[in-house]
Design a protein that fits this description.
- This protein is mainly α.
- It has one domain.
- It starts with 18 loop residues before the first helix and ends with a helix.
Length: about 90
């Protein structure tokens, strides 16, 4: 009785990014990360007291949106995002 030969699956091509493709992905990830983080936290870094920051972080955005609208809450987000993305 002959033993059945093992079936060897065909090797599939594995795509590994490298060179300019890899570095451009890292650059884009860095730019998006820095831009989003700085755009969100720039208004917070002017305060010194952590308890004050935590207290206003819960109440101020809702009061601002209720009184002034969502556009005032996002006024500096666009310029900060673009500035850090270009930098």
């Amino acid at each position: 009785m002959a033993a059945a030969s093992p079936v060897i699956p065909a090797q599939t091509a594995i795509y590994k990014p490298g060179g300019l493709n890899l570095y451009s992905r890292f650059a884009l990830a860095r730019e998006l990360d820095c831009s989003i983080t700085h755009a969100v936290f720039t208004p917070v870094d002017v305060y010194v007291d952590l308890a004050f920051i935590l207290r206003i972080a819960r109440t101020q955005p809702t009061m601002l949106v209720r009184n002034e609208g969502i556009s005032d809450l996002l006024t500096g987000f666009g310029p900060t995002f673009i500035g850090y993305f270009i930098r």
